[in-house]
Amino acid sequence: MYKLDPDSKKFTSTIQNYNFVNTFKIQESTLGEITTDLRLYQCILYIYLEGKIAQKIPIDQNFIIKSENISSYAIDISYIQNEEISDLKIFAHTLDEFLEWKQALQVSRRPIAQSLGNCKICSVRFHLFRKRYYCKSCGNAMCSNCCMYRARLSAYGYRKKQDVCIECVKLLRLPGKVAHGSLFFHRPAIENKSFF
Ligand SMILES: [Zn+2]
Ligand SMILES: [Zn+2]
Question: What SUPFAM superfamilies would the database entry show (predicted)?
């Protein structure tokens, strides 16, 4: 199976290489409880029924791992389809399979890195001596002032703290708030870089 460094600086370019297929017992809003093939490929989760694709679920900001149960190897997911929230529960067979799928799903949620010639927030231009920083929460390129925080973005499968911009920090701090037009269940601890 494909292995990926979870703290890799690369965003989705590496993630595109995931190609997992497993037979799982699942519970899904419209399909009910079934045992079937799931495929994770290029940030899309496919649910198969008798060899045909029954559901195609994009793993994006609207795809959220709500909870996980390490003793029953169950991963609880919510996602938005046709403007409605649907639920999906995946039951893995082993701890390794559970951990591997959980991490692959989290990493697949990472935003795609977006870079313009300027900082997304204050519009200052990047040049040789003004390095761009990527906010790992929204994926945008920023100057050092606008991307000054570090946070544990465990919802994206990171183990170490990552750079986060001042706008995302505001959203991460507020419980129940909507981030980037989507649901956001994880609120990691925030630290200012200048404190360490
Ligand atoms: Zn800036
Ligand atoms: Zn951000």
Answer: FYVE/PHD zinc finger
Based on the fold, state whether residues 54 and 87 are members of the same structural domain. Answer: yes
Cα of 136 to ligand 2 centre, how many Å? 7
Cα 18 to ligand 1 centre (Å): 33
Residues 21 and 64 placed together within one structural domain of the fold: yes
* Percentage of the residues of the chain whose pLDDT score is greater than 90: 51
Of 74, 108, 142, the residue at which a domain comes to its end is 108
Average of per-residue pLDDT across 172-176: 53
138/93 same-domain check:
no
φ, ψ at 98 (rounded to 5°): -60, -50
Q: How far is Cα 188 from Cα 179, in angstroms, rounded to an integer?
A: 13
The pLDDT tens digits for 52-80 are 999 999 998 889 998 888 889 999 999 98
Provide, rounded to the nearest whole percent, the portion of the chain with pLDDT above 70. Answer: 79
Residues with CB under 5 A from ligand 1 (ion): 119, 121-122, 143, 146
Q: Which ligand is nearest to the CA of 180?
A: 2
Angle (CA) 71-77-82 rounded to 5° is 165
- Structural domain includes residue 126: no
Give distance in angstroms: CA of 90 to centre of ligand 2.
Answer: 30
The answer on 172 and 137 residing in a single domain is: yes
Is the distance from CB of 132 to CB of 141 less than 8 angstroms?
A: yes
Contact (Cβ atoms closer than 8 angstroms) between residue 143 and residue 115: no
Please answer whether residues 87 and 29 qualify as being in contact, where contact means their C-beta atoms are separated by less than 8 angstroms: yes
